[in-house]
Amino acid sequence: MSTRSVPAVLWTLLAVVATMPFWDLGHPLWEVDDARYAEVPREMVERGDWLTPSLNYVEYLQKPPLIYWLGALSYSAFGVSEAAARVPLALLALLGLAGVLWLGWWLFDPATGVTAAILLGTCVQFSILSHLLTPDMALAVFLLWSSAMILRAIHRPQDAWWAGPIGGAAAGLAFLSKGLVGFLFPGAWTVGLALLFPEARRGVTALLKSAAIPVALLVVAPWFWVMTKRHPGFLYHFFIEHHLLRYLTPEFNRPGPWYYFIGIGIAGLLPWTPLALGAIAAPALQWRASDARVRQLVVWVALIFAFFTASKSKLPTYILPLFPQQCLLAAEFLRRGNWDRRELSLSRGAAIFLAASAGLGLFAALVLREKWSVLATLGLGHWITAIFFSAALIAALLLQATGDAVPERPFAGAAAAGSLLTLLALVGARQTGYLLSADAVASEILSMWRPGDKIYTYDHYLQGLPYYTRKPVDSIVNWKGEFGAVEKDPRYKTLLLDDNAIRALPASGRTTFVVVRPRVYEHFMTLAAPGRVKRVAPFPNGIVAVMQ
Q1: I need a labelling partner for 510 at 20 to 30 A (CA). Which of 143, 203, 266, 483 fits?
Q2: Between the CA of residue 484 and those of 41, 172, 253, what are the distances in Å?
Q3: H or E element in which residue 519 lies
Q4: CA 275 to CA 351: how far, in whole Å?
């Protein structure tokens, strides 16, 4: 089908959506992940070692290196800054939009591909994570391209010779983004498709005969070979501690009930949640009569959702890899039109529920604004207003989406609402930077810094301190976090300390800046020797106590 079959309004919307990952790249680094994943590549560049990641100048081997390498390349090209840290993230998000567009273009039709890219770019979780540094965006994008190539080989076996190697390379890059799931998801899904769809087996056979698996292994093997040579025990640390134990045990203290990701999915897909629910429910209601292409995408979504639901360690960002396929399903559902009564009732009901919930949230925020001053402080009015606006527009869209074509005006309005949600979130982040970032704390320390001074943190650790001060945190008192892995390493024996370290401060002739978690400040003052705290600078995320 030619590009002329794509309405002009969709191209216009897509052009706007493609700019969204580049909006306000330079906002302050947010605690925790944003700052952490900006600091590790900065240290790579400073130390000149791009093989062994470090955090606070301590070996940090929990995650594969791809996101760090991309950040280090950006720093090398543009200099160290918040914007440079996020340039790779924006490019990855753009690659994700291109991936869902390409997949939808040939799997269904061009208009569905363009619509899916608009849905993905404007859904809240994808758009926010295109501005928040985590490995999840890289994982989701490369898994998308891997799955797209698998589908290409299944539906067009004659293309497996080139789709297989590209898909294998994408799976390898997904592995280097976040680990074993980069191989697990494409592999398990391919096996599932071969079992559930007999017509897919010819394409799966062609895929296996291609260079897909050798290319995937070739992408990941060199780094692992070097790391095992450099760090004895690395494979156990990486695969057992940070894969199996993280997944199977609550050791990492990230619990969540079985319905955890239901709520995350409903919120993360805003403003397209009702469409997404309808798109999943439609094949579920009539599985055998549904299009095989739709059912194959549903299997991917179900696989990701089930895997992370079963995990003992949960974070909201984990299910991002199902969002591209979910948005493609929603786009196909929307463009197909002619919904039956059950499909239309479900989507309309979801839209009405969403609009009502958002309206109640807005009302509650206005009523409680004076009692809960935190609502004003955090700028939650931006979020609630945007959600309400989005819900109202998507409800209008669903009430009209009963024909064969996308109703242009309500669709454009809903997409604009999704863009507005991202814009207001970034505005809110700017306004609340002092709450979310270590920038102000670091500036306070640097304003008094002299060579030989030390930085301690008490009862927490601000990830952005080394980034903004360009100096290590010398000691962390009464907190371990991700540094617990090196607790017994003699190279870092002064890193993790207890209350006695505060009692011994300060060292003669030296100033020590102790960044104290506000809730334990009174206890901290009982530890400090009388008269040793010369100055106190309070910030919402850390009180700077200057000890001399």
Answers
A1: 483
A2: 21, 29, 13
A3: none
A4: 8
DSSP secondary structure, 205-251, as one string: HHHHHTTHHHHHHHHHHHHHHHHHHHSTTHHIIIIIIIIIHHHHSST
Q: Let me know: does 465 contact 542? Beta carbons within 8 Å.
A: no
pLDDT per position as a tens digit, 189-216: 999 999 999 999 999 999 999 999 999 9
Nearest to 226 by CA among 50, 54, 57, 42: 50
Nearest to 26 by CA among 102, 98, 82, 105: 82
- What secondary structure letter does DSSP report for 318? G
pLDDT digit string (tens) for 69-95?
999 999 999 999 999 999 999 999 999
Total residues belonging to the chain: 548
100: Cβ contacts below 8 Å, ≥ 6 apart: 113, 116, 117, 120, 144, 324, 327, 328
| β-pair type (475-477, 58-59) | unpaired
CA distances from 396 to 112, 267, 275, 429, 502 (A): 20, 19, 12, 30, 60
Quote the Cα angle for 427-433-435, to 5°: 125
Sign of CA dihedral 383, 309, 154, 209: positive
- Tokens at residue 503, please? 């009692």
Q: Residue 398 has which token pair? A: 């669903």
Q: Could you report how far apart the first and last alpha carbons of the chain are, in Å?
A: 74
Extended beta strands in 14-60, E state: 54-55, 58-59
Q: Which of 154, 134, 152 is nearest to 144 (CA)?
A: 152
Q: Strand, helix or coil at 533? A: strand
Residue 280, CA distances (Å) to 124, 294, 301, 327 in order: 19, 9, 9, 10
147 compared with 248, residue with greater pLDDT? 147
List own/partner pairs for 239-245 with CB under 8 A and 24 or more apart. Answer: 239/180, 241/485, 242/62, 242/63, 242/179, 243/179, 243/180
- Identify whether 141 is preceded by a cis peptide bond (ω within 30 of 0): no
Q: Is residue 455 within 8 Å of residue 501, measured between CB atoms?
A: no
Q: Copy the structure tokens of residue 452.
A: 């030989």
Q: Which amino acid is at 353?
A: F
Strands across the sheet containing 533-537: 496-497, 475-477, 454-458, 512-516, 543-547, 533-537
- Cα separation, 78 vs 72, in Å, equals 10
The CA distance from 545 to 519, in Å, is 14
Name which of 60, 67, 156 is nearest 106 in CA terms: 156
447-496 pLDDT tens trace: 999 999 999 999 999 999 999 999 999 999 999 888 888 888 888 989 99
Q: What is the pTM of this model?
A: 0.91
Of 97, 180, 185, 110, residue with least CA distance to 141: 97
Three-state secondary structure readout of 127-145: HHHCCCCCCHHHHHHHHHH
Which residue reads 């160290």 in tokens? 80
